[in-house]
Fold this protein.
Amino acid sequence: MKADLVVRDITELHTMDAGEGPTGRLTDAAVAFSGSEVVYVGPTAGAPSAARTLDGTGCIGLPGLVDCHTHALFAGSRADEFERRLAGVPYSEILEAGGGILSTVAATRAADDDTLHSSLHARLTGFLANGVTTVEVKTGYALSTEHERRCLDILGGDWPTRVVRTFLGAHTVPAEWRPDRAGYVAHLVEEMLPAVAEHADCIDVYCDRGAFTLADARRILEAGIALGLTGRIHAEQVEHTGSAALAAQLGCASADHLERLDAAGIAALGKSDTVGVLLPGARLYLKDPAPPARALIEAGARLAVATDFNPGSSPVRDLLSCATLACIEMGLTVDEALLGITRHAGLALARPRLGWLGSGSVADLALFRPPPGEPASAAVLVQYMGGHRAEAVVRDGALVV
Ligand SMILES: [Zn+2]
């Protein structure tokens, strides 16, 4: 067997599959790629020869990281809003004056394609440099058939990372529909969704106070799922709505946020394949209570961790820092946090080939050097918050960083 690329002598590799412990830990390990396939994972001594080799001595290897929840396609800035909120102005007052998410909608609609394209490209280049090879990006700052379709067309291009496209027409009720939420939901289901579904991978609904009701969410998700989209939901963030249990009932791939999840919601997610997605950046910025992560794990639920990167409630681009926060503020172990930004994040996107390394996985690998003076252990990547640039990144079998 001859491979195209072998990364050898990786001091500590976590395959998230075969190996020691829940993260599949191997030492002095190699990963070999042929084309866009993984053809070997195991001791360096047994690795095939290759046209190109990379030395992983002193490094920590992880599958390409997966950020399963972002709102990375937007224009405009909300730095002024950040300062106003620090000064005590409530978000509801900012929203009523046309600020908050509505200002991002206005700026995104007004931006030309080049502006949207170049800002997204720069953001995704930053994610890749941090070892993230797959980024889920939601629409939802356009909120009309024409503009949502434009955003999905942009997301369908070639990007530094793999992009999973989520249609979030039900993010908020746009200004022109504000008095008529029910009318907007009917418009979304009957006109927008059929026009955009073939250009998206997932459908998401923001089910919460001030956004969409549980009945709206059911109607929109059922319509999207019937058109072949993977269901996701923003659930139980501001207020308890029963939306996590709805996600489990409809077979959604994920229920995200969960700060106000109740015992029935915990039990429903525990019994289902719906992944609970923790968003510690939003929790931090909004000063929300922590979601019941330990109770979810004990009930049998699988948890992912994501940035929720957006210009308002979570201007956070660093997925490994979110793993750190999920440990400190939500009680995850290091292994659980690592699973949350790899394999479980893939499952939250209904992409079971993402976030692990082995026969049948995607061919993505991120190599990190530990902070100075520290051992090559994945635990230090989570212990030290921020500043971890990947030493090398392989995506689809090709060395891209
Ligand atoms: Zn979100």
